[in-house]
Amino acid sequence: MESGNVAWVLIGAAMVLFMTPGLAFFYGGMVRSRSVLNMLMMNFWCLLVVPLVWAVVGYSLAFSGSSRFVGNFDKTFMRNLDFSTLEPAVFIFLATFAAITPALISGAVADRMKFSAWAIFVPLWSLLVYVPVTYWVFSANGWFLTRGSLDFAGGTAIHVNAGIAALAVVLVLGKRTGWPTKLSPPHSMPLVMLGTGILWFGWFGFNAGSALAADGRAVQAFINTMLAASAGGLAWGATERVRDGHFTNLGIASGIVAGLVAITPGCGFVTGGSAIVIGMVAGIVCALAVGLKLKVGYDDALDVVGVHFVGGLVGSILIGLFADFDAFAAINPELAEFRSGLFYGGGLRLLGEQFLANGVTIVFSFVVTYAIAKALDLTVGLRVDDEVEAMGIDLREHAETAYAAEGASVG
């Protein structure tokens, strides 16, 4: 266990932790001013609950045992962590990943989900959906990984998983009153841009930290993260300019996030030129995909499906084309066991495995998430009533307002 690697992983954990408040600002700026505190609370709730679930049982089920499908209870309550290795640092690093994943879903259900239902949904979803998929993707014995599917930092396990789950929840939850004819613009674009900047910063810990070492692969992942984000923002902005005649801050911010999402699964497997292409493809495809909700009729309030699901899927599939393991051979000899992508002489095998892993994740996550949401709807109720939705969730659900009226007294 080298001190430099420990420090790098712990710094990465702190950076990924910072991403959840960044996501809260990013989403919070896009909702109505009367619902911004609810959005912040939904994100911070994930930081309160999920790390505890992870420590008690989640990590053990995701990273212990020899089954191909789920772990065992050997490391519940953090028992048997090997402090002579990097494992304790990796444990807390991955806890921050587990926390932000359900937080991504919050953007889809904005303005209308009961907080009590959200409070129950988050730990249930983390255990029943996130943990099994994480085991399949990242555990040494997980069946996706042993078949040869690749996911460096969470394209399949996090973005595709959370994105398709968001679709399942909104189908149970229903559309906002008046949608899509009565649309509310973002109440604070400065908050959106601040959140974008925090997410971009934290994403270097998310991606480069996933190398689990301060080495050349971490540097390449860092470079790829920067380039893909820039390319994604530029491509989305250019798409808007051609389609609508102008650049928007919201479009640029969304494109940056789309580029970050798309490079996440492949940032440690592709070179810089490929990262630019992946970011640009994601920026264009996601800019077009966000319009599908109007055509198909699902109310994904803040475009979680269009950005995270589509962006994660694009990035994960493109590994099958752009993975270049020869380029990493000098710094990661163990990569020799994997195949390169189609464009680098690896044939169709890796591309097929990427389709399989994502296809199974989509079906599993959608079905189980839909069942969780339906069960909550039938018991505690999933949606606030029309009056609360109209007045804004903050005051009724949290007894607070984000912006006090001038001259109003407090306390």
Q: What can you see in these coordinates?
A:
The protein is mainly α and 411 residues long. The protein has a single domain, classed as Orthogonal Bundle (Ammonium transporter fold), CATH 1.10.3430.10. The protein has 15 helices and no strands. Helix 1 packs parallel to helix 3 and helix 8 packs antiparallel against helix 9. The longest helix has 31 residues. The chain is globular and about 60 Å long. The termini are far apart.
Please give a quick description of this structure.
The protein has 411 residues and is mostly helical.
Keywords:
411 residues, mainly alpha
CATH class: Mainly Alpha
Proportion in β-strands:
under 5%
Query: The CATH topology is what?
Result: Ammonium transporter fold
The best one-word shape is globular
CATH homologous superfamily annotation? Ammonium transporter AmtB like domains
**What gyration radius follows from the Cα positions, in whole Å?**
20 Å
SS field, number of helical segments? 15
Q: What is the element string, with H for helices and E for strands?
A: HHHHHHHHHHHHHHH
Sheet having the most strands: none
Number of domains: 1
In CATH, the architecture is Orthogonal Bundle
